[in-house]
Write a structure and sequence with these properties.
Layout (H helix, E strand, L loop, with lengths): L4 H5 L10 H12 L7 H8 L3 H29 L3 H8 L3 H34 L19 H7 L3 H18 L1 H28 L4 H9 L9 H14 L6 H6 L8 H29 L13 H10 L5 H35 L3 H16 L19 H43 L10 H26 L20 H22 L5
The structure holds phenylalanine.
């Protein structure tokens, strides 16, 4: 049984988006992040190209969009952040809410480190001739991969991280107003840049080899289980689902506003952007001879090695500045959304003023990011000499946060919402406003199809990781991937799960005002 609507909404004075477009832009800004130029091309390439794109779109329809819609309904009916909203559905639901936000906070902590790399790259691209010294010797930003390795071993990483957090703080301090303004400004700029880059990339020698690789379906790949599981985890990452963000953003809607329409529009916009980014990135990768990411290669190869490596022609540095500033914009509107999801949850629970909450949350996640900028060499990891502790941790933790954390949260969310709140009620809530009405049978998508899709994906992830050891993405348990056999493949995920559960438990049990 679910509580009546009035008690769900009672006594809430919340911020609100100025316009519905503001909401859509903000959600898009959250979804469309570094994932488009970092995870998406890397996953597509390491899994063999075209079929992955098709599988991604199928899983988007079967799993991704139902999850987005469910998070929207949860936020707009309860008008609370994720933990408070789930608490209204079931009293233990709050634990899941905090678990989700803690996992997403870890994600944001290392995500901002990567935005910090982009800040430093933009700076070096802007000053032609500026060299970065390090273990690989003096390197210009186009001297790849030497520049990248030098950066990993440099305290400049911390400088980048601090700059990123200052920008996030300023935007989030002003709440929905700040976010809405920032995203409205970034939206057209980002599209113009990515389309322009795709057109430029088409004209490069070797462009057709890159496009062939990206789009040519090889039907045998449809039988690769890893494709299907990666499509699900990547869709969660890309759609900012399983992070509590969509619920927080929907809780700022003045009243139920075209939820179905918004879920479809934002998800498709995000996928289109990623697809366009692929059109730009693969021809360039082909041109740079980097088409096939070897198993175990880190996710950074495309954005931070292939791109700058080809910008050696006259004026290339200007393109570098544009590309890396684009990455900074992309990343910041995503990071801000997660900070906002946590800020809202803390304000709901503890009734703190916004300013104090933003300061505490920003400092906390900034601090959590420090291990990921550790520039000391980590010796003996699969014989690699150019790996720092920071990059090693980042790669491994990224894997668990994405492949397990987001997907597990998504599964429980769908089970609670589909079966405790009611799949039928979700469809009714979504249909309450807006011209686009879902048919009644759509409730089975929420109750059955999406959860089963997630369960199958999780089973494939576990199978490929622990039983077959054949996963080609991610670090950890698989032979040939750095960290395997050193003991860290147990210590790091072990610590990750213990810390998340303990932190979520404490936050859940603390006495609040809500
Ligand atoms: N959707 C984002 C992306 O594609 C991921 C993300 C969202 C990361 C929110 C951090 C916070 O990059």
């Amino acid at each position: 049984m679910s509580p009546p609507e009035e008690s769900l909404e009672k006594g809430v004075a919340r911020e609100a988006w100025i316009t519905r477009m503001g909401f859509i832009f903000a959600v898009w800004g959250s979804m469309t992040g570094l994932g488009n130029v970092w995870n998406w091309p890397y996953r597509v390439s390491s899994l063999g190209g075209g079929p992955f794109v098709i599988i991604y779109v199928i899983m988007l329809a079967l799993v991704g969009i139902p999850v987005v819609l469910t998070e929207f309904v949860l936020g707009s009916t309860t008008r609370r952040g994720f933990p408070g909203a789930l608490k209204r559905i079931n009293k233990n639901g709050e634990f899941l809410g905090w678990f989700c936000l803690c996992n997403a906070a870890v994600l944001t902590a290392f995500y901002c480190v990567i935005i910090g790399w982009a800040v430093i790259y933009a700076g070096y691209a802007a000053v032609p001739g500026l060299v970065l010294d390090g273990p690989m010797g003096p390197a210009l930003f186009t001297d790849q991969p030497f520049f990248f390795v030098n950066l990993l071993f440099s305290p400049l990483l911390l400088v980048g991280l601090v700059i990123v957090w200052i920008i996030i703080f300023v935007i989030d301090y002003f709440g929905t107003r700040g976010i809405e303004r920032a995203v409205m400004l970034f939206f057209p700029i980002l599209w113009i840049i990515i389309i322009g880059m795709a057109i430029w990339a088409f004209m490069l020698p070797g462009a057709s080899a890159g496009l062939n690789f990206y789009l040519n379906p090889d039907p045998t790949q449809f039988l690769n289980t890893e494709m299907w599981s990666t499509a699900v985890s990547l869709s969660f990452f890309k759609l900012s689902a399983g992070m509590g963000i969509l619920t927080a953003y929907a809780s700022y809607l003045p009243r139920k506003g075209e939820l179905t329409n918004s879920a479809i529009t934002t998800s498709l916009l995000d996928t289109t952007f990623a697809f366009t980014a692929g059109l730009a990135i693969f021809p360039i990768a082909a041109f740079a001879g980097l088409l096939l990411a070897p198993p175990g290669a880190s996710t950074v190869a495309f954005a931070f090695i292939a791109w700058p490596g080809v910008m050696i022609f006259p004026g290339g540095n200007i393109l570098g500045v544009i590309f890396f500033i684009m990455m900074v914009f992309l990343g910041i509107t995503s990071a801000v959304s997660l900070v906002e999801a946590i800020v809202t949850a803390v304000i709901d629970k503890f009734g703190w003023p916004r300013s104090r909450t933003v300061i505490v949350v920003v400092l906390l996640i900034f601090g959590m990011g420090l291990p990921f900028v550790n520039w000391i060499e980590a010796p003996g990891l699969a014989g690699a000499t150019d790996v720092t502790w920071g990059l090693f941790l980042l790669d491994v933790v990224d894997y668990y946060v994405e492949f397990y954390g987001l997907v597990i949260v998504g599964l429980f969310l769908m089970l609670i919402m589909g079966w405790v709140y009611g799949g039928g009620k979700i469809v009714d809530d979504a249909n309450e406003s807006g011209d686009f009405k879902l048919p009644g049978w759509y409730k089975w998508f929420i109750k059955i199809v999406a959860p089963i899709g997630i369960i199958i994906a999780l089973s494939f992830i576990v199978l490929n990781n622990f039983i077959l050891g054949t996963a080609s993405v991610g670090a950890g348990f698989n032979p040939g991937i750095y960290g395997a056999g050193t003991g860290y493949e147990f210590i790091i995920p072990g610590l990750w799960i213990v810390i998340l559960v303990v932190a979520a438990f404490i936050l859940w049990r603390l006495k609040g005002v809500d």
